[in-house]
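Can anyone check this?
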Amino acid sequence: MIDHHAWASQGDIFAEVPYGLTVAAEGGGIKLPDHPLTPAMLVTYDCQLDKSRHGNPRIQRLHFLPLIAVDSQDLNRQALLRRNEVRPYEAFWLGACPLPIGEAFAQLSEVFSVPAEYFEPVLKPSGLINDVGREELRFGFGANDSRVGTIEDQRLALFSAKWTSYWLGIEPEPIDNLR
């Protein structure tokens, strides 16, 4: 795990994300869930995060996977998770996380959404220059940003292979240097 950027990206790890958060129908606003916050990994694609309309973020909801402590699983399951391979497709091992749960993994079948409004989305300068010489703006958080890090690019490639394989049933291309 590495430090996260100033902007949001797929693979960001959050200490606290609410399950069951909804936008109130009357008068707008956020209705907080009745149950606790959970550590989670952002799985929304970067290209979806960064779309804007009239200088404002366009995305309506962000998608997450709740994180689960590896040591909550039986020893056989722990060994399977730590193999750090594409199979099993449904489980993604993150390794040690700077969270109270420690070593963590996520089940790809447990994806949940949070209205983007909860994070008070803003566009932030990225320091990256686009093809026409302008600085790119990226999706960022104005509130409730509890990120503690993000997964490395190589781990993100493994996650993408698992995600595609699990949800689309497509056998992934081999990924080198997973460790």
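Reply from J.R.: I decoded it. The helical segments are 46-49, 75-82, 153-168.
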